[in-house]
Automatic annotation (TrEMBL):
Alphabetical list of SUPFAM superfamilies matching this protein: UBA-like
Residue stretches making up the DCUN1 domain: 56-124
Any single Gene Ontology cellular-component annotation: ubiquitin ligase complex
Stored Gene3D superfamilies: DNA helicase RuvA subunit, C-terminal domain (1.10.8.10), EF-hand (1.10.238.10)
The protein's role, per its UniProt record: Neddylation of cullins play an essential role in the regulation of SCF-type complexes activity.
Keywords: Ubl conjugation pathway
Transmembrane segments: none
Name the UniProt record assigns to this protein: Defective in cullin neddylation protein
Pfam family, one: UBA_4
Listed GO MF terms: cullin family protein binding; ubiquitin conjugating enzyme binding; ubiquitin-like protein binding
GO biological process: protein neddylation
Length: 124
């Protein structure tokens, strides 16, 4: 079922109202949940952590980044393919497109450190 832009905006607004997050976070979770509001909210709430966890979160996120990065301090295509596989997805899965959008990939299969860290830290 394809949703029109108006319905998608309504779902984003409902997500934001319920979670007190922002529209960017709402859109990303809704994309990953294929626009199922209940699933998106449940996933969002499952990833919530206490505010004092941010320093530990940064170290954990950087450790993940370092596992997949190449010599140029970015995750390149080989690292991206390993990352996707480790997440349990295939490169053709829709969730991979949502992930690339969420991490603001500047080109196919590339994730700079700054984007990777800031975007994953925003998921709280």
């Amino acid at each position: 079922m394809s949703l029109d832009a108006r319905r998608k905006n309504q779902l984003i607004d409902q997500f934001v109202d319920f979670t007190q997050s922002n529209s960017s976070v709402a859109k990303n979770f809704l994309l990953l949940a294929r626009w199922d509001l209940e699933v998106a909210i449940n996933e969002y709430l499952a990833y919530q952590q206490p505010p004092n966890a941010s320093r530990k979160d940064k170290k954990s996120i950087l450790a993940i980044f370092d596992e997949y990065k190449d010599e140029e301090d970015k995750i390149g295509i080989d690292g991206t393919l390993r990352f996707i596989e480790d997440l349990g997805y295939e490169p053709e899965d829709r969730a991979v497109l949502a992930l690339a959008e969420f991490l603001e990939s500047p080109s196919v299969g590339v994730f700079p450190r700054k984007n990777f860290l800031s975007k994953w830290q925003s998921v709280k």
